[in-house]
Specification:
Keywords: Membrane, Transmembrane, Transmembrane helix
Shape: elongated
Strand order of the largest sheet: 1-2-3-4
Largest sheet: 4 strands, antiparallel
Number of strands: 4
Protein name: DUF2939 domain-containing protein
Transmembrane segments: 17-37
């Protein structure tokens, strides 16, 4: 009888050990999965999204290279503008492009400050509003960044997830899925990201800004049609 009790106690102890090990393994898997997730671009994109909601510029700037983004986006926007303008011939467009290059440092600095202002306050302020004493027309005072947001509906787009990631020699290109409910349209915005020392990622370039912009205009055209 005593021997049977020992066997039963032994079985009970074994079950407890098995259960404990199983729990530890599950906890370890959970932590391991979380640590892996923290090292994915998707996690850093979530941090960026949270930083905008929290109006946390320090957190935002850690994961977004605003200067680099502004530099590359400026070139794409100038190219888009010149392609859309049908009033200028090729020579005039070339002159306009060269003039834009001279203005680039000043304008990209304005883009950077506009992004910072939006992250910190949740809105864009009118450019030079204080300098002109509020005498400029509404169109003159509008912020170019705000205009682009309106044209692309970017402030109303919903992030639907990371569609793909592709590594190359200088980082990783992440394809973000975006959905515009008002136009019932889906887009992909491809961004280049580099990994930081702590395993998180930093955005430094939009790879397909022109394609994204053209896709939004096409979606608007289709809805009107």
């Amino acid at each position: 009888m005593e021997e049977m009790d020992k066997q039963e106690n032994g079985k009970s102890w074994n079950k407890k050990i098995i259960a404990l090990i199983a729990v530890i393994v599950l906890i370890a898997c959970g932590i391991g999965g979380y640590m892996y997730y923290k090292r994915t671009p998707a996690y850093s994109l979530q941090l960026i999204q949270d930083s905008v909601k929290e109006h946390n510029w320090e957190k935002f700037s850690r994961h977004v290279d605003t200067k680099s983004l502004a530099d590359s986006a400026f070139d794409d926007i100038i190219e888009i503008s010149l392609e859309e303008d049908t009033t200028m011939d090729a020579q005039t467009k070339a002159l306009a492009a060269n003039f834009a290059k001279l203005l680039k440092p000043t304008l990209t600095s304005l883009i950077e400050s506009s992004v910072k202002e939006y992250v910190e306050t949740g809105e864009f302020k009118d450019l030079d509003d204080k300098k002109d004493g509020g005498k400029k027309s509404k169109r003159q005072k509008e912020n170019p960044a705000e205009n682009l947001l309106k044209e692309t509906n970017a402030d109303k787009l919903k992030f639907t997830g990371v569609k793909s990631t592709e590594k190359d020699g200088t980082g990783t290109v992440v394809a973000m899925g975006l959905h515009d409910e008002s136009l019932n349209a889906d887009y992909e915005l491809k961004i280049r990201m580099i990994q930081l020392e702590d395993g998180t990622w930093k955005m430094n370039k939009i790879e397909n800004l022109k394609d994204f912009y053209n896709a939004t205009k096409e979606a608007e055209k289709n809805k009107k049609a």
